[in-house]
Amino acid sequence: MAVLRRTTLRLTLSDQAADRYPTVPFEVPPGAESIGVSMDLGTQEGVGIDLGLLGPDGLRGWSGGARISYVVERDDATPGYHPGVVPGQWAVLLGLHQVPAEGVDVTITVVCPAREHPDHGPREAPVRRLLRGSDRGLPASRGLTWYAGDPHNHCLHSDGELSLWELANEGVRSGLDYLGCTDHNTTSHHPHLASVSQRHGITLVPGQEMTTHRGHANAWGEIGVIDFRAEARTWVEEVERRGGFMSINHPVADDCSWLHPLERMPPGAELFHGTWYRNLTDTSILAWAAMLPDAVVVLGGGDFHNRSTPLRPGMPTTWIAAEECSAPALIEAMAAGRTMVTGSARYVDEEEARPELLNCPALVRLGGVDGHGEEDLMAVDATGTVLVDRLGARLVIDEDHQVVRAPAARGPYRLETAGRWVVALSA
Question: Domain named Polymerase/histidinol phosphatase N-terminal: which ranges (predicted)?
Fold first, then answer.
């Protein structure tokens, strides 16, 4: 084993201000079978240094703050990284997320060959499916079906704690038809999705979450890596050019709020995030949406990472009216705006909450926009809730399948309980 590079950097707040993403270059020799990278941050508190990799062909992986080491082999790699070793100039990519006022010493070591092999986590056997949201048969236009899922999830390919196989099982346990796999700043999980989908009986939709200190956004589709280090406006342009679909994530969520200025917004917005369950009467995210110049595709995202809270995938649930439950068809339907969000929960026990899919209040667009920009909106199983539009007009729902004329300009629409808890959203 040869040490290709070992260096200690003294990183300060001035370094962070000058360049958020410094690199440590190294040379990979001809014939290399694998490389291993490790980072030593010592024991100092208040340090957050992210880790990634650049190859001769560009961004080769990112694990953020979830790992302090990784391995890249010719045919395999640590989750978060793409396999393939070629000779030439490489670089360890750092992210200076949190640097103490007094600075921090960071030691980077690169070896060839690597000391270890990649670990993709437990290949859990498929669990038995008891429920499928699409079996509810919500009203839809001819040829379409409402599929239930959660487009925003993480696994071991970034900072999630579950393998792809474990994540798929969590989606099946929640009764979901699909799960979006949106790991941070990487697409290393994409090559594995088809086989896991087939094995576990749930559609895994390829995605990536462009993650920066100024905001996060999801992009779905097999569109290659979107470089998170570029300006956010280029994300919008690149995702559109490559045929994907993009959404701003949790726009007002603590220190992950959206701070990137944009002249042109992406088509989607995550208007119901898993953190909303802390306070379902909080309308700050709706205030953000009300300031947008144009309507957006309404999405919800559980942002599932682990089992540390009771919330499982589908909290909230994004329903998509698509021709079939394939990843391309679901992404196409999102782009067409055929979405709605429900937030009702069923508690399995004190430590596990999953979505209520078969009886939850829902807001279904029925299509058929007229010359005045109006179409029918149906409140399903929502008797006793209140329908509220963007301008604050309120209507008490007193029928199980109540149809309301709903101008698109007055959306997004929401259903509230008497206690002002938001339980459903629609454009």
Answer: 149-214
Q: Report pLDDT for 368.
A: 59
**pLDDT of amino acid 408:** 86
Of 243, 250, 219, 223, the C-alpha closest to 232 is 219
CB-CB neighbours of 144 under 10 Å: 18
pTM: 0.96
What separation in angstroms does the CA of 104 have from each of 12, 18, 47, 225, 426? 7, 16, 8, 30, 47
Q: Quick one: CA dihedral 375, 324, 224, 211, positive or negative? A: positive
Q: CB of 51 within 8 A of CB of 93?
A: yes
17's tokens: 């201000």
Which tokens sit at 338?
């055929």
How many C-beta atoms surround the C-beta of residue 394 within 10 A?
Answer: 9
User: What pLDDT is attached to residue 370?
Assistant: 53
Tokens of 54: 């650049």
CATH of domain 2-112: 2.60.120.380
Q: Which residues of 261-281 are buried (b: 16+ CB within 10 A; e: fewer)?
A: eeeebbbbbbbbbbbbbeebe
Contact 147, 39 (CB under 8 A): no
Whether residue 412 is preceded by a cis peptide bond, meaning omega within 30 degrees of 0, is yes
Biggest alpha carbon–alpha carbon distance for the chain = 73
- Residue-wise pLDDT tens digits, 100-119: 999 999 999 999 999 999 99
Distance CA 226, CA 233 (A): 12
Distances (CA, A) of 252 to 157, 214, 258, 275, 411: 25, 11, 7, 10, 19
Task: Say which residue the tokens 């470089």 belong to.
Answer: 227
CA distances from 194 to 173, 203, 326, 381 (A): 19, 8, 10, 35
Domain 133-246+253-277+286-356 has CATH 3.20.20.140: yes
Name the residue ranges covered by the structural domains of the chain: 2-112, 133-246+253-277+286-356, 361-427
